[in-house]
Structure formats: C-alpha cells, structure tokens
Amino acid sequence: MSTPTLKTFAGGCHCGAVRYAVDLDPSNLEASKCNCSICLKTNRISLSVDPDNFRLVSPASRDEVPNYQFASKSQHYLFCDKCGIHCFVNGSYEWEGKVVKNFSINAVTLDADQGLDLRELKLRYWDGKGENWGAGAVEKPPAGGCL
Ligand SMILES: [Zn+2]
C-alpha cells in the first residue's frame, strides 16, 4: 500500500466560532450521506477522517463545542451554537461484536477555494433510517433519503 498524500484543509462553521484543520488525501475520500433522521435534516455530507488528522483550532477545547445527542447517544454531533452549522461527528458503535470508533467531518464545512471540488465527491448512501448498516453504503439513496 502506498503512503497517502495528505493535504491540510481548513474548515469551520459559518460564523467562524468553530474552526478546524484536517489532513485529507483528496484522491481517496470516503464521502457519504445517510437517510437517518439527523443526517437528513442536516443534509450532511459525511467525510470519514482519521481523528489523528483532525485539529480543532477554535474554540480551544472540544468541550466548548456544543454537541447534540439523541436515542442511543452513541454519537456526538458537534455544532456551532451561534450559527447552527454542524461541523463534525464522533462516537462509537458496536459492529459484529466489536466497538468501532467513528469520526467524520461535514464536507460542506470545508472552506471554499482550497482546490477540493465537492462536485467530484463520489457519494455513497447509507440506509440509517432502516438501520440497514449491513448493506454498506450503496450507490443510490435508499428510501427516505435524498441526493
Ligand atoms: Zn458558527
């Protein structure tokens, strides 16, 4: 396996209260959407990233970023309480008897004009609404989802 070529991108919420830097390999981005209740209403484009490649720039501590949780509370949806933008998600879930940690940014919170064209993201779609995680992310949005 070749070493990925990482490039640092800046991102954040709309008002600038939440700012981050993230190292991504632009040639290998895992972008997805989901039809679950929160992903649909935020219309989030999830981009999985290695948490070690993510640095919160502002505020100083992640504890200062409001986070929303619901249902099983296994996920933290971190957002800005000034402008309302959901910036990133972290949490964990159990899959086939193992605890899997997940971390993703909302791709639309990456700053514009950094050489990453969101139109070129190869989106895949999860059926979170049907809790059909076993199907993996598929090419077309499952029922209840959107492009
Ligand atoms: Zn904000």
TrEMBL record:
Domain of life assignment: Eukaryota
Keywords noted in UniProt: Metal-binding, Zinc
Protein name according to UniProt: Mss4-like protein
Keyword DNA damage (UniProt): no
One term of GO molecular function: carbon-sulfur lyase activity
Family designation: Belongs to the Gfa family.
Span of domain CENP-V/GFA: 9-127
